[in-house]
Amino acid sequence: MELWTVFDRTDVAKAKLNDYRPIIIETGVLSATNGSARVRLASTDLLIGVKAELAVIDNMSAYKNCINFYVDCSANATPLFEGKGGQEFGEEIASALYAAYDNSFAISDLSKLIVSSMHAWKLYVDIVVLQCGGNVIDAAGLGCNYYFFMFNIVSKPKSIFQVKAALFDTQICEVITRPDDEGKITVDLPEDIVLWKLDVSRAPLFVGVNKLGSANVVDLSLQEQACCRAALWIAVSPMISLEEQASSEDGDYRILFIRQCGGGSLQSDTLADIVSFGIQIGMRLQHLLARYLLVSMEDF
Amino acid sequence: MKTGVLETQEGSSFVELGTTRVTAIVDGPKQAIKNVDVHSLEGTVRVIVNNGSGIDHLLQSAMRSLICLNQFPKAQIDIEITVLEDDGGVLAASLMAASLALCHSGIPTLDICLAAHVAITTDDYIIVDPFKKDMTSNDCLSVTVGIMPSLNQVICYQQSGISSREQLSKAFSTALTAAFHLYKIFCDALRVSQQT
Protein backbone atom coordinates (compact mmCIF):
# COMPACT_ATOMS: atom_id res chain seq x y z
CA MET A 1 0.00 0.00 0.00
CA GLU A 2 2.97 2.31 0.29
CA LEU A 3 3.05 2.43 -3.48
CA TRP A 4 -0.16 4.44 -3.61
CA THR A 5 1.27 7.35 -1.70
CA VAL A 6 3.54 8.10 -4.63
CA PHE A 7 0.79 8.62 -7.17
CA ASP A 8 -0.64 11.98 -8.02
CA ARG A 9 -4.15 10.95 -9.03
CA THR A 10 -7.33 12.77 -8.33
CA ASP A 11 -9.08 9.57 -7.36
CA VAL A 12 -6.41 7.45 -5.76
CA ALA A 13 -8.71 4.68 -4.66
CA LYS A 14 -9.85 3.91 -8.18
CA ALA A 15 -6.61 4.56 -10.03
CA LYS A 16 -4.92 1.63 -11.72
CA LEU A 17 -1.40 1.20 -12.92
CA ASN A 18 -2.53 0.79 -16.51
CA ASP A 19 -4.93 3.72 -16.53
CA TYR A 20 -4.49 6.88 -18.54
CA ARG A 21 -5.38 10.37 -17.50
CA PRO A 22 -8.06 12.09 -19.60
CA ILE A 23 -7.08 12.57 -23.24
CA ILE A 24 -8.49 15.33 -25.44
CA ILE A 25 -7.79 15.33 -29.18
CA GLU A 26 -8.73 18.10 -31.58
CA THR A 27 -8.18 18.09 -35.33
CA GLY A 28 -8.04 20.93 -37.77
CA VAL A 29 -6.86 23.48 -35.25
CA LEU A 30 -4.43 25.22 -37.63
CA SER A 31 -5.94 26.42 -40.88
CA ALA A 32 -2.63 27.14 -42.61
CA THR A 33 -1.44 23.54 -42.53
CA ASN A 34 -2.36 20.52 -44.57
CA GLY A 35 -3.22 18.71 -41.37
CA SER A 36 -3.09 19.56 -37.71
CA ALA A 37 -4.01 18.16 -34.33
CA ARG A 38 -3.87 19.21 -30.73
CA VAL A 39 -3.47 16.57 -28.06
CA ARG A 40 -4.00 17.18 -24.37
CA LEU A 41 -3.16 14.45 -21.91
CA ALA A 42 -4.27 15.88 -18.56
CA SER A 43 -1.85 18.78 -18.25
CA THR A 44 0.48 17.80 -21.09
CA ASP A 45 -0.27 19.78 -24.23
CA LEU A 46 1.05 19.12 -27.73
CA LEU A 47 0.36 20.90 -31.00
CA ILE A 48 1.10 19.02 -34.23
CA GLY A 49 1.09 20.42 -37.74
CA VAL A 50 1.75 18.65 -41.03
CA LYS A 51 2.90 20.46 -44.16
CA ALA A 52 3.22 18.85 -47.57
CA GLU A 53 5.73 20.33 -49.99
CA LEU A 54 6.55 19.36 -53.54
CA ALA A 55 10.27 18.68 -53.74
CA VAL A 56 12.47 18.14 -56.77
CA ILE A 57 14.40 14.91 -56.32
CA ASP A 58 17.57 14.30 -58.31
CA ASN A 59 17.97 10.63 -57.46
CA MET A 60 14.57 9.04 -57.02
CA SER A 61 15.84 5.53 -56.32
CA ALA A 62 17.76 6.72 -53.26
CA TYR A 63 14.93 8.93 -52.07
CA LYS A 64 14.35 8.74 -48.34
CA ASN A 65 13.01 10.99 -45.61
CA CYS A 66 9.62 11.55 -47.15
CA ILE A 67 8.34 12.21 -43.63
CA ASN A 68 10.41 14.61 -41.58
CA PHE A 69 9.83 15.19 -37.89
CA TYR A 70 10.76 18.15 -35.76
CA VAL A 71 9.93 18.63 -32.11
CA ASP A 72 9.98 22.15 -30.73
CA CYS A 73 10.24 22.09 -26.95
CA SER A 74 8.85 25.49 -26.19
CA ALA A 75 10.04 27.32 -23.11
CA ASN A 76 6.40 27.85 -22.22
CA ALA A 77 6.22 24.18 -21.31
CA THR A 78 8.80 24.24 -18.56
CA PRO A 79 11.63 26.60 -17.58
CA LEU A 80 14.10 23.81 -18.19
CA PHE A 81 13.51 24.17 -21.92
CA GLU A 82 14.86 27.70 -21.90
CA GLY A 83 17.31 28.45 -24.67
CA LYS A 84 18.79 25.22 -25.98
CA GLY A 85 17.67 23.18 -23.02
CA GLY A 86 14.93 21.37 -24.84
CA GLN A 87 16.89 20.69 -28.00
CA GLU A 88 18.31 17.34 -26.97
CA PHE A 89 14.94 16.21 -25.70
CA GLY A 90 13.26 17.28 -28.92
CA GLU A 91 15.81 15.47 -31.04
CA GLU A 92 15.31 12.32 -29.01
CA ILE A 93 11.57 12.34 -29.62
CA ALA A 94 12.02 13.18 -33.29
CA SER A 95 14.44 10.31 -33.84
CA ALA A 96 12.02 7.92 -32.15
CA LEU A 97 9.17 9.06 -34.35
CA TYR A 98 11.31 8.86 -37.45
CA ALA A 99 12.46 5.33 -36.64
CA ALA A 100 8.89 4.20 -36.08
CA TYR A 101 7.63 5.64 -39.38
CA ASP A 102 10.61 4.78 -41.56
CA ASN A 103 9.20 1.63 -43.10
CA SER A 104 6.64 0.60 -45.65
CA PHE A 105 4.21 -0.69 -43.04
CA ALA A 106 3.27 2.41 -41.06
CA ILE A 107 2.04 4.56 -43.94
CA SER A 108 1.14 2.31 -46.82
CA ASP A 109 0.48 5.21 -49.19
CA LEU A 110 4.06 6.43 -49.29
CA SER A 111 4.41 5.40 -52.91
CA LYS A 112 1.52 7.71 -53.69
CA LEU A 113 3.67 10.63 -52.63
CA ILE A 114 5.98 10.10 -55.60
CA VAL A 115 4.42 12.14 -58.38
CA SER A 116 6.88 11.70 -61.23
CA SER A 117 10.48 10.71 -61.78
CA MET A 118 11.57 14.15 -60.60
CA HIS A 119 8.93 15.27 -58.14
CA ALA A 120 7.72 13.86 -54.85
CA TRP A 121 5.73 15.09 -51.92
CA LYS A 122 7.66 15.72 -48.74
CA LEU A 123 5.77 15.80 -45.47
CA TYR A 124 7.04 17.99 -42.65
CA VAL A 125 5.61 17.18 -39.24
CA ASP A 126 6.18 19.81 -36.59
CA ILE A 127 5.35 19.14 -32.96
CA VAL A 128 5.26 21.92 -30.40
CA VAL A 129 5.30 21.02 -26.73
CA LEU A 130 3.08 23.63 -25.13
CA GLN A 131 3.00 22.29 -21.60
CA CYS A 132 4.72 19.56 -19.63
CA GLY A 133 2.32 17.73 -17.37
CA GLY A 134 1.97 18.25 -13.69
CA ASN A 135 4.04 20.28 -11.31
CA VAL A 136 7.38 21.25 -12.74
CA ILE A 137 9.63 19.67 -10.16
CA ASP A 138 12.30 17.92 -12.15
CA ALA A 139 11.51 17.59 -15.82
CA ALA A 140 15.12 17.12 -16.82
CA GLY A 141 14.62 13.54 -17.89
CA LEU A 142 11.45 13.02 -19.80
CA GLY A 143 8.72 15.58 -19.93
CA CYS A 144 6.38 13.91 -22.36
CA ASN A 145 6.19 10.16 -22.45
CA TYR A 146 3.35 9.68 -24.87
CA TYR A 147 3.09 10.88 -28.43
CA PHE A 148 -0.20 10.47 -30.16
CA PHE A 149 0.29 10.90 -33.80
CA MET A 150 -2.39 11.31 -36.36
CA PHE A 151 -2.34 12.20 -40.00
CA ASN A 152 -5.32 14.17 -41.07
CA ILE A 153 -4.26 15.66 -44.36
CA VAL A 154 -7.70 16.91 -45.30
CA SER A 155 -8.50 19.43 -42.63
CA LYS A 156 -9.64 22.30 -44.84
CA PRO A 157 -11.12 21.69 -48.30
CA LYS A 158 -9.79 24.95 -49.66
CA SER A 159 -6.20 24.05 -48.93
CA ILE A 160 -4.26 24.04 -52.18
CA PHE A 161 -1.25 21.87 -51.38
CA GLN A 162 -2.92 18.51 -51.10
CA VAL A 163 -4.68 19.05 -54.38
CA LYS A 164 -1.42 18.49 -56.20
CA ALA A 165 -0.74 15.23 -54.42
CA ALA A 166 -3.79 13.54 -55.86
CA LEU A 167 -3.71 15.20 -59.24
CA PHE A 168 -0.09 14.76 -60.20
CA ASP A 169 -0.66 11.08 -60.70
CA THR A 170 -2.55 12.03 -63.83
CA GLN A 171 0.32 14.20 -64.97
CA ILE A 172 2.43 11.15 -65.71
CA CYS A 173 0.68 10.83 -69.09
CA GLU A 174 1.84 14.26 -70.09
CA VAL A 175 5.35 13.40 -69.07
CA ILE A 176 5.45 10.64 -71.64
CA THR A 177 4.31 12.91 -74.43
CA ARG A 178 7.17 15.34 -73.87
CA PRO A 179 10.35 13.28 -73.76
CA ASP A 180 12.46 15.64 -75.86
CA ASP A 181 12.21 18.62 -73.55
CA GLU A 182 15.85 18.34 -72.34
CA GLY A 183 14.84 15.39 -70.18
CA LYS A 184 12.99 17.61 -67.73
CA ILE A 185 9.41 17.38 -66.58
CA THR A 186 7.05 20.21 -65.80
CA VAL A 187 4.17 19.94 -63.39
CA ASP A 188 0.85 21.69 -63.84
CA LEU A 189 -2.22 22.03 -61.70
CA PRO A 190 -5.41 20.87 -63.39
CA GLU A 191 -8.62 22.79 -63.09
CA ASP A 192 -10.63 20.05 -61.44
CA ILE A 193 -9.69 19.78 -57.76
CA VAL A 194 -9.76 16.42 -56.00
CA LEU A 195 -8.53 15.80 -52.45
CA TRP A 196 -7.24 12.57 -51.00
CA LYS A 197 -6.20 11.29 -47.61
CA LEU A 198 -3.36 9.17 -46.42
CA ASP A 199 -4.24 5.78 -45.04
CA VAL A 200 -3.50 6.06 -41.33
CA SER A 201 -4.99 2.77 -40.22
CA ARG A 202 -1.56 1.34 -39.51
CA ALA A 203 0.12 4.41 -38.05
CA PRO A 204 1.79 3.46 -34.77
CA LEU A 205 0.99 4.74 -31.32
CA PHE A 206 3.64 5.12 -28.66
CA VAL A 207 3.27 3.82 -25.13
CA GLY A 208 5.79 4.70 -22.47
CA VAL A 209 5.98 2.06 -19.75
CA ASN A 210 7.96 2.87 -16.62
CA LYS A 211 9.26 0.60 -13.94
CA LEU A 212 8.46 1.76 -10.42
CA GLY A 213 9.63 -0.73 -7.84
CA SER A 214 8.14 -3.97 -9.08
CA ALA A 215 5.18 -2.41 -10.90
CA ASN A 216 4.74 -1.44 -14.53
CA VAL A 217 3.18 2.00 -14.77
CA VAL A 218 1.91 3.95 -17.76
CA ASP A 219 1.06 7.62 -18.06
CA LEU A 220 3.27 9.08 -15.38
CA SER A 221 2.82 12.57 -14.09
CA LEU A 222 5.94 14.54 -13.36
CA GLN A 223 5.91 13.68 -9.69
CA GLU A 224 5.72 9.99 -10.42
CA GLN A 225 8.32 10.36 -13.12
CA ALA A 226 10.83 11.72 -10.64
CA CYS A 227 10.61 8.40 -8.80
CA CYS A 228 11.26 6.27 -11.88
CA ARG A 229 14.48 5.66 -13.72
CA ALA A 230 13.95 3.10 -16.45
CA ALA A 231 11.41 3.65 -19.19
CA LEU A 232 10.58 1.77 -22.35
CA TRP A 233 9.01 3.38 -25.39
CA ILE A 234 6.98 0.96 -27.48
CA ALA A 235 5.33 1.75 -30.81
CA VAL A 236 2.51 -0.64 -31.70
CA SER A 237 0.72 -0.75 -35.02
CA PRO A 238 -2.36 -2.84 -35.84
CA MET A 239 -2.62 -4.82 -39.05
CA ILE A 240 -6.38 -4.49 -39.39
CA SER A 241 -8.38 -1.68 -40.93
CA LEU A 242 -9.74 1.35 -39.12
CA GLU A 243 -13.29 -0.02 -38.92
CA GLU A 244 -12.11 -3.30 -37.44
CA GLN A 245 -9.98 -1.41 -34.94
CA ALA A 246 -12.97 0.59 -33.81
CA SER A 247 -15.03 -2.53 -33.22
CA SER A 248 -12.59 -4.52 -31.07
CA GLU A 249 -9.41 -4.12 -29.08
CA ASP A 250 -7.97 -7.46 -30.10
CA GLY A 251 -6.34 -7.98 -33.43
CA ASP A 252 -3.05 -8.73 -35.08
CA TYR A 253 -0.32 -6.16 -34.57
CA ARG A 254 3.26 -5.35 -35.41
CA ILE A 255 5.87 -3.77 -33.20
CA LEU A 256 7.58 -0.97 -35.06
CA PHE A 257 9.87 0.55 -32.45
CA ILE A 258 11.16 -0.06 -28.94
CA ARG A 259 13.64 2.07 -27.11
CA GLN A 260 14.87 2.05 -23.55
CA CYS A 261 15.60 5.44 -22.06
CA GLY A 262 15.65 7.28 -18.79
CA GLY A 263 19.01 6.18 -17.46
CA GLY A 264 17.99 3.11 -15.50
CA SER A 265 18.55 -0.56 -16.16
CA LEU A 266 16.06 -3.37 -16.51
CA GLN A 267 16.27 -7.06 -15.78
CA SER A 268 16.16 -9.07 -18.96
CA ASP A 269 13.28 -11.16 -17.59
CA THR A 270 11.09 -8.19 -16.79
CA LEU A 271 11.79 -6.64 -20.17
CA ALA A 272 9.52 -9.16 -21.88
CA ASP A 273 6.78 -8.45 -19.33
CA ILE A 274 7.05 -4.74 -19.97
CA VAL A 275 6.87 -5.26 -23.72
CA SER A 276 3.73 -7.37 -23.49
CA PHE A 277 2.21 -4.87 -21.06
CA GLY A 278 2.94 -2.01 -23.43
CA ILE A 279 1.51 -3.87 -26.41
CA GLN A 280 -1.73 -4.49 -24.56
CA ILE A 281 -2.05 -0.82 -23.65
CA GLY A 282 -1.09 0.27 -27.13
CA MET A 283 -3.74 -1.82 -28.83
CA ARG A 284 -6.37 -0.41 -26.49
CA LEU A 285 -5.28 3.11 -27.38
CA GLN A 286 -5.45 2.26 -31.07
CA HIS A 287 -8.99 1.02 -30.53
CA LEU A 288 -10.08 4.23 -28.82
CA LEU A 289 -8.35 6.45 -31.36
CA ALA A 290 -9.86 4.57 -34.28
CA ARG A 291 -13.34 5.14 -32.88
CA TYR A 292 -12.62 8.84 -32.57
CA LEU A 293 -11.22 9.06 -36.09
CA LEU A 294 -14.26 7.41 -37.59
CA VAL A 295 -16.58 9.76 -35.75
CA SER A 296 -14.62 12.80 -36.87
CA MET A 297 -14.57 11.50 -40.44
CA GLU A 298 -18.35 11.26 -40.43
CA ASP A 299 -18.61 14.83 -39.18
CA PHE A 300 -16.38 15.98 -41.99
CA MET B 1 39.28 -4.39 -28.71
CA LYS B 2 42.09 -2.22 -27.45
CA THR B 3 42.59 0.24 -24.64
CA GLY B 4 44.99 3.11 -24.25
CA VAL B 5 45.03 3.97 -27.93
CA LEU B 6 45.76 7.62 -27.12
CA GLU B 7 48.77 8.10 -24.89
CA THR B 8 47.84 11.56 -23.69
CA GLN B 9 44.38 10.46 -22.61
CA GLU B 10 43.94 8.33 -19.52
CA GLY B 11 40.71 6.74 -20.73
CA SER B 12 40.53 5.72 -24.35
CA SER B 13 39.60 2.62 -26.29
CA PHE B 14 39.17 1.25 -29.78
CA VAL B 15 36.57 -1.32 -30.78
CA GLU B 16 36.42 -3.04 -34.14
CA LEU B 17 33.45 -5.21 -35.12
CA GLY B 18 34.31 -6.45 -38.57
CA THR B 19 34.64 -3.27 -40.57
CA THR B 20 32.85 -1.11 -38.02
CA ARG B 21 35.45 0.91 -36.11
CA VAL B 22 34.73 3.10 -33.11
CA THR B 23 36.98 4.97 -30.69
CA ALA B 24 35.98 6.33 -27.30
CA ILE B 25 37.63 8.92 -25.07
CA VAL B 26 36.63 9.53 -21.46
CA ASP B 27 37.31 12.90 -19.87
CA GLY B 28 36.54 13.35 -16.23
CA PRO B 29 35.30 13.42 -13.58
CA LYS B 30 35.58 17.18 -13.70
CA GLN B 31 33.63 20.20 -12.60
CA ALA B 32 30.27 20.57 -14.30
CA ILE B 33 30.24 23.21 -17.02
CA LYS B 34 26.52 23.74 -17.21
CA ASN B 35 25.16 26.05 -14.57
CA VAL B 36 22.50 23.98 -12.88
CA ASP B 37 20.42 25.69 -10.24
CA VAL B 38 19.31 22.47 -8.63
CA HIS B 39 21.99 20.89 -6.47
CA SER B 40 22.48 17.46 -7.91
CA LEU B 41 23.63 14.72 -5.60
CA GLU B 42 24.66 12.64 -8.58
CA GLY B 43 27.07 13.35 -11.36
CA THR B 44 26.04 13.91 -14.93
CA VAL B 45 27.14 12.11 -18.07
CA ARG B 46 27.54 13.86 -21.38
CA VAL B 47 27.99 11.86 -24.58
CA ILE B 48 29.25 13.36 -27.83
CA VAL B 49 29.12 11.24 -30.96
CA ASN B 50 31.12 12.25 -34.03
CA ASN B 51 30.04 10.90 -37.42
CA GLY B 52 27.13 9.07 -35.85
CA SER B 53 23.52 10.14 -35.88
CA GLY B 54 20.83 9.58 -33.35
CA ILE B 55 22.61 7.33 -30.87
CA ASP B 56 23.86 9.85 -28.30
CA HIS B 57 20.63 9.69 -26.29
CA LEU B 58 20.82 5.93 -26.07
CA LEU B 59 24.46 6.01 -25.05
CA GLN B 60 23.81 8.63 -22.41
CA SER B 61 20.96 6.62 -20.95
CA ALA B 62 23.07 3.49 -20.86
CA MET B 63 26.09 5.18 -19.31
CA ARG B 64 23.96 6.74 -16.61
CA SER B 65 23.00 3.32 -15.36
CA LEU B 66 26.49 1.89 -15.80
CA ILE B 67 28.58 4.44 -13.89
CA CYS B 68 28.33 4.84 -10.11
CA LEU B 69 27.23 8.44 -10.40
CA ASN B 70 26.45 8.83 -6.70
CA GLN B 71 30.19 8.87 -6.02
CA PHE B 72 30.68 12.04 -8.08
CA PRO B 73 28.37 14.79 -6.80
CA LYS B 74 28.41 17.99 -8.85
CA ALA B 75 30.83 16.40 -11.30
CA GLN B 76 30.60 15.70 -15.00
CA ILE B 77 31.95 12.82 -17.06
CA ASP B 78 32.39 13.40 -20.78
CA ILE B 79 32.48 10.49 -23.19
CA GLU B 80 33.41 11.24 -26.76
CA ILE B 81 32.67 8.59 -29.38
CA THR B 82 34.15 8.80 -32.85
CA VAL B 83 32.82 6.50 -35.54
CA LEU B 84 35.70 5.86 -37.91
CA GLU B 85 33.85 3.43 -40.14
CA ASP B 86 30.23 2.33 -40.15
CA ASP B 87 29.19 -1.05 -41.48
CA GLY B 88 26.27 -1.74 -39.19
CA GLY B 89 26.20 -2.18 -35.45
CA VAL B 90 27.58 1.23 -34.56
CA LEU B 91 25.46 1.46 -31.42
CA ALA B 92 26.73 -1.88 -30.12
CA ALA B 93 30.34 -0.98 -30.86
CA SER B 94 29.92 2.43 -29.24
CA LEU B 95 28.50 0.92 -26.07
CA MET B 96 31.42 -1.45 -25.67
CA ALA B 97 33.96 1.23 -26.56
CA ALA B 98 32.55 3.59 -23.95
CA SER B 99 32.55 0.89 -21.28
CA LEU B 100 36.11 -0.10 -22.15
CA ALA B 101 37.25 3.51 -21.94
CA LEU B 102 35.57 3.96 -18.57
CA CYS B 103 37.37 0.92 -17.19
CA HIS B 104 40.66 2.17 -18.56
CA SER B 105 40.24 5.57 -16.94
CA GLY B 106 39.53 4.01 -13.56
CA ILE B 107 36.02 5.39 -13.11
CA PRO B 108 34.04 2.95 -10.96
CA THR B 109 31.23 1.22 -12.80
CA LEU B 110 28.72 -1.37 -11.68
CA ASP B 111 29.72 -3.77 -14.41
CA ILE B 112 31.09 -3.85 -17.91
CA CYS B 113 28.79 -3.37 -20.85
CA LEU B 114 28.44 -5.93 -23.61
CA ALA B 115 26.34 -5.23 -26.67
CA ALA B 116 25.12 -7.15 -29.69
CA HIS B 117 23.24 -6.26 -32.84
CA VAL B 118 20.83 -8.79 -34.35
CA ALA B 119 18.68 -8.49 -37.45
CA ILE B 120 15.86 -10.58 -38.86
CA THR B 121 15.35 -10.18 -42.57
CA THR B 122 12.00 -10.12 -44.30
CA ASP B 123 12.35 -13.82 -45.16
CA ASP B 124 12.82 -14.61 -41.46
CA TYR B 125 16.56 -15.24 -41.33
CA ILE B 126 18.40 -14.29 -38.13
CA ILE B 127 21.72 -12.54 -38.66
CA VAL B 128 24.01 -11.78 -35.74
CA ASP B 129 25.99 -8.56 -36.28
CA PRO B 130 24.80 -7.97 -39.85
CA PHE B 131 26.66 -5.88 -42.40
CA LYS B 132 25.08 -2.77 -43.75
CA LYS B 133 24.36 -4.43 -47.06
CA ASP B 134 22.47 -7.21 -45.25
CA MET B 135 20.00 -4.61 -44.04
CA THR B 136 18.37 -4.44 -47.44
CA SER B 137 15.40 -2.32 -46.40
CA ASN B 138 14.03 -0.43 -43.44
CA ASP B 139 11.38 -3.07 -42.90
CA CYS B 140 13.58 -5.81 -41.50
CA LEU B 141 13.86 -6.07 -37.75
CA SER B 142 16.94 -4.64 -36.10
CA VAL B 143 17.61 -5.14 -32.39
CA THR B 144 20.53 -3.74 -30.41
CA VAL B 145 20.91 -4.87 -26.81
CA GLY B 146 23.39 -3.61 -24.23
CA ILE B 147 23.66 -5.63 -21.04
CA MET B 148 25.53 -5.77 -17.77
CA PRO B 149 26.40 -9.47 -17.80
CA SER B 150 27.10 -10.15 -14.12
CA LEU B 151 23.97 -8.35 -12.97
CA ASN B 152 21.91 -9.70 -15.87
CA GLN B 153 20.40 -6.29 -16.53
CA VAL B 154 19.65 -4.54 -19.79
CA ILE B 155 20.90 -0.97 -19.99
CA CYS B 156 20.26 -0.29 -23.65
CA TYR B 157 17.56 -1.69 -25.87
CA GLN B 158 16.54 -0.42 -29.26
CA GLN B 159 14.41 -2.12 -31.89
CA SER B 160 13.35 -0.72 -35.23
CA GLY B 161 11.62 -2.20 -38.23
CA ILE B 162 8.52 -4.32 -38.52
CA SER B 163 8.36 -7.28 -36.19
CA SER B 164 5.87 -9.58 -34.58
CA ARG B 165 6.00 -10.56 -30.95
CA GLU B 166 7.62 -13.95 -31.59
CA GLN B 167 10.26 -12.47 -33.85
CA LEU B 168 11.07 -9.88 -31.23
CA SER B 169 11.58 -12.35 -28.40
CA LYS B 170 13.64 -14.60 -30.66
CA ALA B 171 15.87 -11.71 -31.70
CA PHE B 172 16.20 -10.55 -28.10
CA SER B 173 17.36 -13.93 -26.80
CA THR B 174 19.75 -14.29 -29.73
CA ALA B 175 21.21 -10.87 -29.00
CA LEU B 176 21.66 -11.73 -25.33
CA THR B 177 23.51 -14.92 -26.21
CA ALA B 178 25.69 -13.12 -28.71
CA ALA B 179 26.52 -10.41 -26.18
CA PHE B 180 27.57 -12.95 -23.55
CA HIS B 181 30.04 -14.46 -26.00
CA LEU B 182 31.98 -11.20 -26.04
CA TYR B 183 32.70 -11.36 -22.30
CA LYS B 184 36.03 -13.14 -22.67
CA ILE B 185 37.25 -10.79 -25.39
CA PHE B 186 36.34 -7.80 -23.25
CA CYS B 187 38.15 -9.11 -20.17
CA ASP B 188 41.20 -10.05 -22.21
CA ALA B 189 41.41 -6.49 -23.54
CA LEU B 190 41.33 -5.16 -19.98
CA ARG B 191 44.00 -7.59 -18.80
CA VAL B 192 46.28 -6.64 -21.66
CA SER B 193 45.97 -3.00 -20.70
CA GLN B 194 46.79 -3.80 -17.08
CA GLN B 195 49.98 -5.62 -18.01
CA THR B 196 51.41 -2.75 -20.03
TrEMBL record, chain A:
Q: Which UniProt keywords apply?
A: Cytoplasm, Exosome
UniProt-annotated location(s): Cytoplasm; Nucleus, Nucleolus
What InterPro entries would the database entry show?
ExoRNase_PH_dom1, ExoRNase_PH_dom2_sf, Exosome_comp_Rrp42_subfam, PNPase/RNase_PH_dom_sf, Ribosomal_Su5_D2-typ_SF
Grouped into one coarse class, the protein's main location is cytoplasm
Q: What SUPFAM superfamilies does the annotation carry?
A: Ribonuclease PH domain 2-like, Ribosomal protein S5 domain 2-like
Q: Where is the Exoribonuclease phosphorolytic domain?
A: 20-144
Q: Which domain of life is it from?
A: Eukaryota
Q: What is this protein called?
A: Ribosomal RNA-processing protein 42
In which organism is this protein found? Answer: Dracunculus medinensis
TrEMBL record, chain B:
Checking Pfam families in the record gives:
RNase_PH
Q: Which GO terms describe its molecular function?
A: RNA binding
Spell out the coiled coil positions from the record. none
Which Gene3D superfamilies does this UniProt record tie to the protein? Answer: GHMP Kinase, N-terminal domain
Transmembrane spans: none
The answer on whether this UniProt entry bears the keyword Phosphoprotein reads no
Taxonomy, superkingdom: Eukaryota
- Record keywords: Ligase included? no
Enumerate the InterPro entries for this protein: ExoRNase_PH_dom1 (IPR001247), ExoRNase_PH_dom2_sf (IPR036345), PNPase/RNase_PH_dom_sf (IPR027408), Ribosomal_Su5_D2-typ_SF (IPR020568), RNase_PH (IPR050080)
- Keywords in alphabetical order: Cytoplasm, Exosome, Nucleus, RNA-binding, rRNA processing
Q: Where in the cell is it found?
A: Cytoplasm; Nucleus
One of the GO BP terms on file: rRNA catabolic process
Q: Which residues form the Exoribonuclease phosphorolytic domain?
A: 2-108
Record's PANTHER family? EXOSOME COMPLEX COMPONENT (PTHR11953), EXOSOME COMPLEX COMPONENT MTR3 (PTHR11953:SF2)
Q: Which family does it belong to?
A: Belongs to the RNase PH family.
Question: What is the name of this protein?
Answer: RNase_PH domain-containing protein
